[in-house]
Amino acid sequence: MSTTSLPLPDHSPRLREALLAAAFTADGLLELLGAPAYAALARSETVPALRATRGTGALETLTRLFLLQCAVPHERARAALPLEECLADGWVVRDGDEVRAAVDIRPYGGPEGQDWFIVSDLGCAVGGAGGASGQGEGVVLGVGGASTTLAGITVRTPVASALDLGTGSGIQALHAAQHATRVTATDLNPRALHFTRLTLALSGAREADLREGSLFEPVGSDRYDLIVSNPPFVISPGARLTYRDGGMGGDDLCRSLVSQAGDRLNDGGYAQFLANWQHVEGEDWQERLRSWVPRGCDAWIVQREVQDVTQYAELWLRDSGDHRADPVQYAARYDAWLDEFEARKTKAIGFGWITLRKSGSESPSILTEEWPHPVEQPLGDSVRAHFDRQEYLRARDDAALLADHFVLAAEVMQEQVGLPGAEDPEHVVLRQNRGMRRATKVDTVGAGFAGACDGSLSAGQILDAIAQLLGEDPVRLRDRTPQALRLLVEEGFLEPAAG
């Protein structure tokens, strides 16, 4: 399908009004379908939703039409939609006495309860494995797990300019439009730019500056306060599918994005990416990714998952529908993936988040870590706070740190671990119930110190009091504590007291 045959946004306000009037929203769908059928849709299973939409109301009609891609009788469509305008603009098409959707329209709840709509190609509303099986190479996916993950970790402070690089159906641009004065969205696929225009228009958002091209080429030397990208990061032999395969060797596309982002950020700006990276034989993956970080940027790289090369190949062969092909052809393609990994000495593939902050520091903070544990989304405030803490710690030597006042972060709990009946615990654990949900072991001094941090006394004064209680030399205690204190601040257990 060419871009010119896609719907026009001309009457999108009228269509939006009809969708809202019928309660064709995330909340409305949940109420209509029920939680099991609603969850099944996210797994690309439609039978429960079809059973729940056998009625003749407007919401049932719209759900069948735009979400389940079923033809509906002409009169039912007319009762639910401004039909002539939708036909004229190409949102729907006639099929005898019935009407069919030309695109997938999926309700999406914004972070502040907004009713948004993500427009994508038919059959491509759910990304990830199976999300576009059997579709052409230029397809545009809707909202998947990767999309919502990136939206959740993005720092949402008000900014003048934001760039959504590789916009797809426009979900990141839509989020950015809520807190950025100017939004630029780019994509190599012109269909994606058109879908982004439709998503923004149907969601009632401002238009974005849409530019066609690869990586940073469409924006030249322009700089931004925020850059986000859910790029085609799949490491594959060749570039069969535009929406997922970057077309560069190995993880070069992700490396290029990260390494080039520093020159496109304003001071204090953030660049946030989802990425895949190779675990190469004989190399430390953390050192490998540290080498990607551009000069003058702090970085936080979180590896969320690792797959061996066979698991990885199978995941993306299923995504493209190759597992349904002729067995000989499937085996040949599987072999090609393994040949590629063998040639590059790749033993596994990592997936995770990469966040940069343009600090301009000559001694940047670069944290790489493996964190497969559950986190609390949205995480954007926690990401911003992480970089604020790095800036704070970089500006303070040990003496200044001990002179500062701290408070225990919200919802940090203390757990004592030991044998039942023992007089003293074997160790004490501080555990966060928010954000990254970290846990850390502390000794008696650390537990007592954290418990006393209410902002009233300086760190040094608290240590002096602990030394007196334990009969320790206060000078030695002050000397050996700053490193542990820095770790508690860096991981967010303690926060500098305001004022």
Q: Which helices and strands occur, and which strands form pairs?
A:
Layout (H helix, E strand, L loop, with lengths): L11 H10 L4 H8 L1 H8 L4 H6 L5 H10 L4 E2 H7 L2 H7 L2 E4 L2 E4 L2 E6 L5 E6 L24 H9 L5 E7 L5 H6 L3 E8 L2 H13 L6 E4 L11 E6 L22 H10 L3 E16 L4 H6 L6 E12 H11 L7 H17 L2 E13 L7 E5 L9 H15 L3 H6 L1 E4 L3 E6 L9 E6 L6 E4 L1 H9 L1 E5 H12 L3 H7 L1 H9 L3 E3 L3
Parallel strand pairs: 6-7, 6-9, 7-8, 9-10, 11-13
Antiparallel strand pairs: 1-3, 2-3, 4-5, 10-12, 11-12, 14-18, 14-19, 15-16, 16-17
Walkthrough of the structure:
The chain has 499 residues and is of the alpha/beta class. The chain has an eight-stranded mixed β-sheet with strand order 8-7-6-9-10-12-11-13, with helices on both faces. Helix 17 packs across helix 18. The chain is built from 20 helices and 19 strands. Strand 4 (104-109) and strand 5 (115-120) form a beta hairpin.
